[in-house]
Design a protein that fits this description.
Layout (H helix, E strand, L loop, with lengths): L2 H15 L11 E7 L4 E5 L12 H11 L5 E8 L9 H10 L5 E5 L5 E5 H4 L12
Parallel strand pairs: 3-4
Antiparallel strand pairs: 1-2, 1-3, 4-5
Bound molecules: tetrahydrodeoxyuridine.
The site of tetrahydrodeoxyuridine has 14 residues, from helix 2.
């Protein structure tokens, strides 16, 4: 990814982060997912008094995109309010793996605008996929 695309997607992810509903953890996350159509889908984490009902920013963005019929993705940027670089949780990695190849680039940025780019293959090697369901 070019630096200008990374900065653009991180800026949109930061806007989404401002809309996070995270009164329990106070850990706010924003995501910007680029579909192969070129459209961008934004997501934030949405928590719940029943803690297990929370949804991560990444899955919010993926499900918004899927519900708009976008099925393939070329890049994901996430940014949090933390000091550490955030990385997608295991559930989000698995959800992404259903629709994205190993080469999906995932830009992870902290509140200081430091970032690092991973691929999905690096974050989720030996993924479980539909081929494992075959007899
Ligand atoms: N969270 C995300 O939105 N994305 C991640 O990849 C990790 C965690 C959210 C879920 C919860 O609202 C808060 O961060 C603390 O776990």
């Amino acid at each position: 990814m070019h630096d200008i695309e990374i900065k653009n997607m991180l800026s949109m992810a930061a806007d989404a982060r401002d809309r996070a509903y995270a009164p329990y953890s106070n850990f706010r996350v924003g995501a910007c997912l680029k579909g192969e159509s070129g459209a961008f889908y934004l997501g934030c984490n949405i928590e719940n008094a029943s803690y297990g009902a929370a949804c991560c920013a990444e899955r919010t963005a993926v499900f918004k995109a899927l519900s708009e019929c976008e099925r393939r993705f070329s890049a994901l940027a996430i940014t949090s309010t933390g000091d550490e670089l955030p990385v997608p949780c295991g559930i989000c990695r698995q959800v992404l793996s259903e629709f994205c190849g190993d080469s999906l680039e995932i830009v992870c940025s902290n509140r200081y605008d430091e970032y690092r780019v991973f691929t999905l293959g690096e974050l989720l090697p030996h993924r479980f996929g539909p081929e494992h369901l075959e007899d």
